[in-house]
Amino acid sequence: MLFGNKVFADTNYQTSTYGKSDSTLGVNFSLTSHWQVEGNQEKITSISGGYTRQDLSISVVGSSAGAKQGFPMTSACNALAFNSGTGSSWNKSTNFPNTTTNGSVGYTYYYANLKRNSSTWSMHIDNTLWSGGLGGAALQSAIKSMGGT
């Protein structure tokens, strides 16, 4: 403490990019997440993503994306969810407040629906940015309690 104000030596800016192809390998998707760490506080600041089509007979007919951070199985959760449409790229800021890292979870996601002729299928990316000390089944349960998959 310095004159009653909490002072952090550094703000750490983190970036995670996750790429994935759909099941046909015809469309490549990416999700980039940005968050910052200050001492024992973290917050998701923005997410962006998009796709490139290798197979032009495949259409992306809809998509959604979002970010969540907070404490699983409580109402202390910040969420951003939006329709990212059919465009090949998108970018959103979250305006989330800091949350204590210990016990909290931060994750982002990107879901897309694809179509070729009469066939339809989906793709999803889930990206855990921090897990508050949780792992394995406990982490998956925590994410599901926050509305994730």
Description:
With 149 residues, the protein is mainly beta. Helices cover 7% and strands 57% of the residues. The chain is built from 1 helix and 9 strands, in the order E-E-E-E-E-E-E-E-E-H. A hairpin with a 5-residue loop joins strand 1 and strand 2. The N and C termini lie far apart (40 Å).
Structural class: mainly beta
Put simply, the count of helices is 1
What characteristic shape results from the CA principal axes? elongated
Rg result: 17 Å
Q: Number of DSSP strands?
A: 9
How widely separated are the two ends? 40 Å
Q: Which blocks of ≥5 consecutive residues have pLDDT under 50?
A: 1-8
* Average residue-wise pLDDT: 86
* Largest sheet composition: 5 strands, antiparallel
Fraction of residues in β-strands: over 45%
| Helix content percent band | under 10%
Order of helices and strands: EEEEEEEEEH
Q: Helices and strands in order, then pairings?
A:
Blueprint: E1 12-21, E2 27-38, E3 41-53, E4 59-70, E5 77-83, E6 89-93, E7 99-100, E8 105-116, E9 119-130, H1 136-145
Antiparallel strand pairs: 1-2, 2-3, 3-6, 3-7, 4-5, 4-8, 8-9
